Hints:
The protein is of the alpha+beta class. 23% of the residues lie in helices and 15% in strands. The protein has a domain at 82-127.
Amino acid sequence: MFTPDPIPRPTGPPASSTPLGDYLNQSPPGSSSGYAVLPRSLAEAMPLPWQHQMRNLLAEFHQAFGHVQWPVYRVVPSRYEQLANLDDDQLAEVGCTVEVGDDGELEYRMRDGRRIDDPEALQVLVSCLDPIPPRGARPPAAPPPPPAW
């Protein structure tokens, strides 16, 4: 009735006790060290069965954490840029200034006055236009074909 053979063990690494954290640590699109953002237009464009599952997961999540004082989040699409490539508005956004030093070279400074020694090597987040179209928006028109000569 019972086999004397040992039960085969699964191959591969053991299952993680933090699978979501493991996935988000890989830096998939829309994630950072503190947040995971789902563009609403893409979530609502998912196939209907996915939307049902997502709705149920979010409902359970909000039920479990409904007691938390949730702030209102403002999500701003951003991209990394070299500090030296920013214009004045972008520099102000990241809290930096640039001025011409005594030697005629540009000097980049933080808001508190600290000098930034290598602005070409410093990557900062600056806001950008959202590349994901809002729900119901038409995709941009294709460029016209080049003229035939």
